[in-house]
Amino acid sequence: xxxxxxxxxxxxxxxxxxxxxxxxxxxxxxxxxxxxxxxxxxxxxxxxxxxxxxxxxxxxxxxxxxxxxxxxxxxxxxxxxxxxxxxxxxxxxxxxxxxxxxxxxxxxxxxxxxxxxxxxxxxxxxxxxxxxxxxxxxxxxxxxxxxxxxxxxxxxxxxxxxxxxxxxxxxxxxxxxxxxxxxxxxxxxxxxxxxxxxxxxxxxxxxxxxxxxxxxxxxxxxxxxxxxxxxxxxxxxxxxxxxxxxxxxxxxxxxxxxxxxxxxxxxxxxxxxxxxx
Length: 277
What we know:
The protein is 20% helix and 26% strand. It has helices at residues 6-23, 83-86, 133-138, 146-156, 196-205, 227-232, and strands spanning 28-32, 48-52, 55-57, 75-81, 90-95, 102-104, 124-131, 143-144, 163-168, 193-194, 208-213, 238-241, 254-259, 268-270, 272-276. It is globular.
């Protein structure tokens, strides 16, 4: 839903984009409409121009061997037709929504937007990558904290407005092995995540629209209560889990394009996620 005056802003931005694209050379320019969602962000007065020279795929290939939160496959593929026998190839998927590189829509932990209701302008955002690999190597239960965010800002400047903040723990290199879940003998998983205090910092002191992690969950593995999920998603913001290849993206300056599912009523689902660098 757009705030008042947004339609006029859209028209102006589209005209500006056409003029820009007509005059652009080798660089590809995309004008991003600054239309904030209700009620969690302020109206944006100006569009953001994006140029990029390469695209990084932040999506893991999804097969039946991908690690799941439950430890059992969340995907079955049923063959329905083959080119040889039927003249075309077709499968039926039996799929749990939260599997592989996937979106957590607000509705997953609240009565907020389902995946199909998230405004499309909130799926193309500046990307800030917070590297906590050293912490994660020393402690599998490491959490990204407000101190990590402040340290990033001290080096790279303020977090971009309307950003997606991604935790880069290096955990994606463990896919598809058991080390990604990293469950102990009692079945407790151990992997990094966002501390709930970091979520509150971003909610209260910064204008951030999304979180992303290269692990199975926004919360760290031994979380008993999904505190970060319950802090973040009910504000009508989204998350992305099991993100790949964050090491190929700079800490600041890239744009994330989150191709979330547009299935009516979905709580989230496998997504194709790109970074424009």
